[in-house]
# Entry
Amino acid sequence: MKKLTFRTSKKLRNLAKATLEASEFKIGYPEKTTKTKSMFLVKDDGIYLMNSFTVKNGKTPLENDYVVYAWGYNPNTNEDIWEDSYEVSRDDFGESLELGEEWLVKIANGHSLYIWIDSDSYRMGLGG
# Structure
């Protein structure tokens, strides 16, 4: 099991705040939506969290600053990103993470988010 760390940062806090304010969220790849507050955990070029809500201004998540890399999994700062990401999962993925309002408030107020992940499951935790 690998541990992904999303350290508290302005980007993470802003993503949590924007998620709290949003009311409709995409669920994975099908064009379905839900009212359950969530973010996407993505592994492609690095491993990161991003918004699962529709952005009204037409900009991409990256342009809106809603992409938050796990510590050590940013392709801009890790020259071994492919190998390190491969150890987490051999395949690219996009997983919808349901986050309750209580957790989002804690993240927006400065808590870090931890995700322990293996090939068929994950669990999450918060840290101060």
